[in-house]
Design a protein that fits this description.
Radius of gyration of chain A: 20 Å
Shape of chain A: globular
Largest interface: A-B, 21 and 21 residues
Structural class of chain A: alpha/beta
Distance between the termini of chain A: 36 Å
Helix content of chain A: 40-55%
CATH topology of the largest domain in chain A: Dehydroquinate synthase-like, alpha domain
CATH architecture of the largest domain in chain A: Up-down Bundle
Largest sheet of chain A: 6 strands, parallel
Strand content of chain A: 5-15%
Oligomer: homodimer
Chain lengths: 387, 387
């Protein structure tokens, strides 16, 4: 066995009502917060009110920056960082889905250091920026999917170049995650399914890629098992306490798994899709690509794909992983092809080129060797629905 | 469900050869280390040589302080802190069993702050000392039992008063744990068994006490399961790679479990024993007390004791937890009574008083209500071997 690393610097509060901890936890970091959120859902659902009530009770002032969209841009981050600096906030709270949490973390980096958001994508670890000088971040997920609440990743899109790239740096860890399953009760069945699928892809890709870390793999295994068992229940019964709890927990575990093990080709090939088509949600892209890529990948790590199939309730055979995904996507009515998502056939070549530009880290760990032709062919299959 | 907290600030490198990471990791913290260790075993086993070789390769100078004994004293810590200050070391490395790791962590606190070691037992959390001003600590366990490598506890004895008390503070976390199962290969079967029993008691008490934390409880469950399976193998085959690996892993998990959930009456009643009889190893005391206290406790949390029994390979019934321990102690020839350990009968009353002085935290979470009479009676039973 190689030496494995486990590093989990994010303090977690998990449970129904955890959002109410925001004021108490915030007081560790200061007296004024920037709340980062999206335009609508946290207001409609009441999540934002719960948060501000807790801050009020602890005498914490706040400024709300509510302009984060799905597939958040570097410009949105830069603007948030400007506000953080101008308003002299002590810390940052992200409340929302993955896009919001990704943005909140990046706003901390940009507001506490030199430069702009895009300077920090692929920023190397070694440069010894000093984490405790950063504005601390509290993450409060309102979906059960992203895992961003507990890891070092922020995926940002540059709308000028259509590039979608990742900040992956220890500076980018939040300090505290408040994981409150109650905040997910208001998700529609559709949103429940698609965000749950995101978490499932984190579990699948971290488990099956070439990296090895038996500790983190256990998180991925546990996550896949819980999603297979509880997503159907959360989908049918939005207020089923146990189902929501286990989905929030699974998403968090999968987020920790990818923090240690990274992802692979499904993610690498998805990023250009939602990069060029910002109306496509990340997890929709994952869904439309996942079966074709899994059919291509499973021979590279038969043991782990067989395990994944078993966790999903299928026979423990590598190729059953594909069947498991097909059924899963069918059951929750998730996207099956790129065409459905509005991707244009003539764009496929450009997407393939972008994978080469932006997705090389995931490439290196993919269970099967990939080249440009293979990527293009997989896009074609995913476009045409040819398994 | 209550809101549970998970905080795991210690970075872990786990695997055969992890000790060789010391130089590379140490360079994050500076150029001169204080190595804290015991008088003999790390020298004989070659563990200390592996460590210093790695430091040499990375140009890190070091001073060795090798005076830590089992049941380490506050005076040993104060002396180590003096050396750390005088020698202007940048960081501290503890290499050894639980006593050494406990001492190394406390040396960091005392050498980086005001006062003496004994000022920090029961030191309250709220006082906001600043962790990053502390000398960073690297822990390198050479046994598989203590779990001290990953948690905030240091158990110290004051030889003047015979008190045995605990530093439990977030300042007391090591920065990095290098958990290298190879360093445990040289343990005798006896030491393997007794230190493994220590880890098992961490799992048992964290799982069954009144505190609840489903995340941390999973660590305790996993630890108990692994110990039941792999301690017999490690006991028979000292160089069985898998057995040693899983025992090191289990001890670490159990150490994380008690960090979140604390212990209970077995630990509270053991501390006065090895406090008054410093030649008694902590885990020997645990062994001599465990069956009697479990027989007293199991009705307070029948579900969890039944689970523990099952994890140990017994029928899933609460009282089977006692049987499991009896068999376990028998199998590994561990101490069965206080009398065997040289405890004097006329001391039992004093021990019971000391539990009241020093053990109240564990009291409060014990599955069953305890009073002075109950403690005395349990000591009597453990003395006489009356289950």
């Amino acid at each position: 066995m190689t030496i494995v690393n486990e590093y989990r610097p994010v303090e977690i509060y998990f449970g129904e009502g955890a959002v109410k901890k925001a004021g108490e936890v915030g007081r560790r970091f200061g007296f004024k917060a920037l709340i980062v959120t999206g335009r609508k859902s946290t207001k409609v659902s009441g999540a934002l009110d719960k948060l501000t009530k807790s801050l009020d009770e602890h005498g914490i002032r706040y400024v709300i920056y509510d302009e984060i969209t799905p597939n958040p841009t570097d410009k949105q981050v830069n603007k948030g960082a400007d506000i953080a600096v101008r308003e002299k906030v002590d810390f940052i709270i992200g409340i929302g889905g993955g896009s919001v949490l990704d943005a909140a973390k990046a706003i901390s980096i940009v507001s506490s250091n030199e430069g702009y958001a895009w300077d920090y994508v692929r920023y190397p670890e070694g440069s010894r920026l000093i984490p405790y000088l950063n504005r601390p971040v509290i993450t409060i997920p309102t979906t059960a999917g992203t895992g961003s609440e507990v890891n070092r990743y922020s995926v940002l899109t540059n709308p000028m170049t259509k590039e979608k790239m990742v900040i992956s740096h220890s500076l980018n860890y939040p300090k505290v995650a408040l994981v409150d399953p109650e905040l997910t009760y208001t998700m529609s069945p559709e949103l429940t399914a698609i965000t749950g699928f995101d978490a499932l892809m984190h579990a699948l890709e971290s488990l099956t890629n070439k990296r090895e870390n038996f500790i983190a793999e256990e998180y991925a295994i546990k996550a896949a098992e819980l999603i297979a068992k509880w997503l159907p229940v959360a989908y049918e019964e939005p207020e089923n306490k146990k189902a929501r709890r286990y989905m929030s927990y699974a998403a968090m575990l999968a987020g920790i798994a990818i923090d240690h093990l990274g992802v692979a080709l499904i993610h690498a090939m998805e990023h250009p899709v939602s990069g060029h088509y910002p109306d496509v949600a990340h997890a929709e892209g994952l869904s439309a690509l996942s079966t074709y890529i899994t059919a291509f990948n499973y021979k590279g790590n038969p043991e782990k794909y067989a395990l994944f199939a078993k966790l999903m309730g299928e026979e423990e055979k590598p190729h059953r992983a594909v069947d498991a995904l097909v059924k899963f996507i069918e059951r929750f009515n998730l996207p099956k092809t790129l065409e459905e998502l509005g991707v244009e056939k003539e764009k496929l070549e450009r997407l393939a080129e972008d994978v080469y530009m932006c997705g090389r880290t995931a490439f290196a760990v993919n269970p099967v060797e990939v080249d440009m032709d293979a990527v293009y062919e997989l896009y074609e299959r995913a476009y045409e629905g040819k398994l």
